[in-house]
Structures are given as structure tokens and as C-alpha cells.
Amino acid sequence: MDLLKEKIVTEGKVLSDSVLKVDAFLNHQVDPVLMQEIGKEFANRFRDKKITKILTLESSGIAPATMAGLELGVPVIFARKRQSLTLTDNLLTAEVYSFTKQTTSKVSVSHDFIKEGDNLLVIDDFLANGQAALGLIDIAEQAKADVAGIGIVIEKGFQEGGQALRDKGIKVESLAIIDSLENNQVAFKEEALR
Ligand code: G4P
Ligand code: NA
Ligand code: NA
Fold first, then answer.
1. Domain ranges (residues) in the chain
2. Is this complex's ipTM strictly greater than 0.90?
3. Does the CB atom of residue 94 touch ligand 1 within 6 A?
4. Of 1, 102, 118, 151, which residue has the fewest beta carbons closer than 10 angstroms?
């Protein structure tokens, strides 16, 4: 997705060989126009999948997921990372290990909003090692819902998450795939013509 790649190049900051900072449009400040285009792109890539709901994770997954939900005409559910005063009953919970932070955290979704027969599109801002996506798939399985695919805004292709998820036979669509952040340069993976 050219608009996204342009944004990454002009407003992203390479912090190290493995970390890209995109606070200017995705992780802190949000660019609504870009987000709307991202939503349309996800919708186009999953339009034939009969998606019933979108499942994402707070906080940075919410903006792109919401725009995709608007385009596809389906509700958006975000898994919670913190305990909530009101979200206490009927919880589906998964453990998510972060290699980056070396911590395990719990993510939760109310069973009220994901049911057997749901056909979910999982969306997230970044795909690194894939642990967040696997946690959301775990929650979908607990609810006996299907996962029709995963939509990612920025995939770090040099980390193993994308390969691991695709090896499971899951359709993973990433709008920008980064091959390398070495030498302070963002190198994108060449995309096959679509
Ligand atoms: P994984 O789920 O793919 O295994 O990822 P990992 O544990 O490595 O990621 C932990 C957090 O760091 C996630 O955000 C993820 O989106 C983010 N992240 C990973 N790599 C990068 C990167 O290169 N750049 C940026 N900007 N973020 C990265 P989170 O803690 O869930 O935060 P948020 O959703 O509240 O923003
Ligand atoms: Na993030
Ligand atoms: Na995230």
C-alpha cells in the first residue's frame, strides 16, 4: 500500500535494527485519512470472506480495525489488556508472551461479543513474533468462532510471526512488509503484483 509506505518513509523513525517508531500516525498520533485508506484496503482484501466481526487488541489496533469495520459493515471488538471494573463476567482470556518486553500478559474478551459461528478478521498494527495474533486466535477458538484471516498494518518480515501464522494455513495480509531496518534504512519487501 503506497500511501502507507510513503508515510513510513517520511514520518517513521528507525530506532534500531529491529524497531520502527511510527508514533506520528499509528501508535500515538493517528492520521484519520491514512486510517480510512487502511480500512478500505483491509476491506478489499477480505471482502469475499463473509466476515461477521473484527477482533483486535487495544490500543493501537483499534483505529485501523474500526475503519475496516466501517468499510465491511461489521462490529469491532478489542481485547482488553488491563483488568476492567465492568468487564468481569463471561471472559475469554489468553496469555500473550512478548519477546520484546520479555513479559507475559493476559488479554481478555467478553464471550458476549464473540460466539460460535462468528467468522472473525483479526487486525493489529504490528506483526513481529506473532504472539498477539496467536492470543487472539486462542480466544476465537475458546468461543468456537472461526478466524478467516489476519490483517496487519506493518509486518516486520525479518521476525518470525508472519511465517509462523502463514505456515498454519492462515491468510495473512500485511499492508507494508519491512525486510530490514539495517543502516537506519527502511527496506520494504517487494510485493508480487496483485
Ligand atoms: P508480537 O505480538 O508480534 O509477538 O509482538 P511483540 O510482543 O514484539 O510486540 C509488543 C508490542 O510492541 C506491541 O504493541 C507491538 O505492536 C509493538 N511492536 C513490536 N515491534 C514494533 C516496532 O518495530 N515498532 C513499533 N512501533 N511497535 C512495535 P503493544 O504493546 O500491544 O502496544 P499498543 O498496541 O498499545 O501500541
Ligand atoms: Na503497538
Ligand atoms: Na498492537
1. 2-80+90-188
2. yes
3. no
4. 102
- Of the candidates 22, 143, 34, which has an alpha carbon nearest to the alpha carbon of residue 92? 143
Architecture of domain 2-80+90-188: 3-Layer(aba) Sandwich (3.40)
Closest ligand to Cα 128 = 1
**Chain segment 4-21, per-residue pLDDT in tens:** 999 999 999 999 999 999
Compute CA distances 18 → 15, 124, 153, 169, whole Å: 8, 18, 16, 26
Cβ of residue 25 lying under 6 Å from some atom of ligand 1? no
pTM as predicted: 0.95
Spatial CB neighbours of 189, under 8 Å, sequence gap ≥ 6: 157, 177, 178, 179
d(CA 68, CA 73) in angstroms, rounded, equals 8
Q: Is the peptide bond before 59 cis (omega within 30 degrees of 0)?
A: yes
Distance CA 191, CA 108 (A): 35
